[in-house]
Amino acid sequence: MSDTIYKKLAAHLDDLPGGFPATESGVELKILRKLFTPEEAQLAVKLTLIPEEAHVIAHRFGGDKDEVAEKLREMSRKGLIYSIEKPGKPPLYMAVQYVVGIWEFHVNDLDEELVRLMNEYIPYLVDADAWKASPQLRTIPVSRSLDPGHQSLPYEDAANLVKGHRRYAVAECICRKEHKLVGEGCDRPMESCLVFDTAADYYLRNGLAREIDEAETLKILEEGERAGLVVQPSNSQKAINICLCCGCCCQVLLAMKKHPDPAEFFSSAYIVEVDEDECVGCEVCIGRCQMEALTLENGVVSLEAKRCIGCGLCVTTCPTKALKLKRKELAPEVPRSNTEAAIKLAKARGKLSNAKMAKMALRSKFDRLMATKGK
User: Fold this and answer.
1) H runs (alpha helix) in the chain
2) How high is the pLDDT of residue 130?
3) Which residue of 146, 158, 209, 312 pairs with 203 in a disulfide if CB–CB is 3.0 to 4.6 A?
4) CA-CA distance, 73 to 66, in Å (whole number)?
5) What is the distance, to the nearest Å, from the Cα of residue 89 to the centroid of all Cα atoms in its chain?
6) What is the pLDDT of residues 148-194, one digit of tens each?
7) Are 304 and 293 in contact (CB under 8 A)?
8) How would you classify the pairing of strands 270-274 and 323-327?
9) Domains recognised in the chain with CATH numbers
């Protein structure tokens, strides 16, 4: 079958904030052929980042509205597009990027072929330059790593980030799961992907997660700290998800660790400081560091600052309190919302401009008007 529609879908996904770059090998097309049928691909390219009702998309697609509505429901269930459902209102559908997005939505139906294709594609997908300009995730300290009297910003504290949400859910970590599938996994907790509110609705509606409450969410964070997991929420002040990541499985940590100065690719407000007079050279912190930023030199721990991402995991287990987190003089600016973060990332990749956003909104408004007339 011709690759035309899959090339069109690949270009469509590449225009989204997270990107989906082309490769010489065409591995990205193999991934799309495995996930999308040709008919699903044809419909997917008609969706935008603006949530719309099925009849609007049907008008744009040129198909029967009932058939399109059923196909959209099925594609949402399969994790190929995103949907928003509220009581008493029609479902809304929108395009979703490949990572973070479509890939994570396939946590329950991984197979060795898909994992192999993804591992081949990851070096192209995790674009270091784009990630440096506007990362999708940020790193915040585990709560116990900060001094009790330290005043962090509300969105820099994991416990504060999870308070007051309408709904909570936890899913399995797709990175840890795909590594285990090919015999390379670790023994850290599998349930470590936290999602909130609308994102939790989507995950639970599609059987991708288990519903929990605020108390269990905080417990999972505590268990993650004990297991040595880096806390990485979505890069906004109002996070919709928090990933608890290990340096042996997390595709982002693995990709960035290959660079000589990986810290420059992470959005983090903190860095570790070592008190050499208090260090006893026990090396506990070295085993806790997920970025290989700590080494032992002449019986004392030494920090390679360009590798430290300020997660605080080394601080909480130091028996002599020789390690502490200090705030960077120039802390990164954190987008206020996930929408703002997505727009910033898309602009950083050269895929979005104010004119393009205006055109997208105008097209959606026009199609809504025309679809309503055709009802």
Assistant:
1) 4-14, 27-35, 38-44, 54-61, 65-77, 112-125, 128-133, 158-161, 174-181, 197-205, 214-226, 251-257, 284-288, 338-348, 354-373
2) 74
3) 209
4) 11
5) 28
6) 667 788 899 999 999 999 999 999 999 999 999 999 989 999 999 99
7) yes
8) antiparallel
9) 4-122+349-373 (1.10.10.10), 128-327 (3.30.70.20)
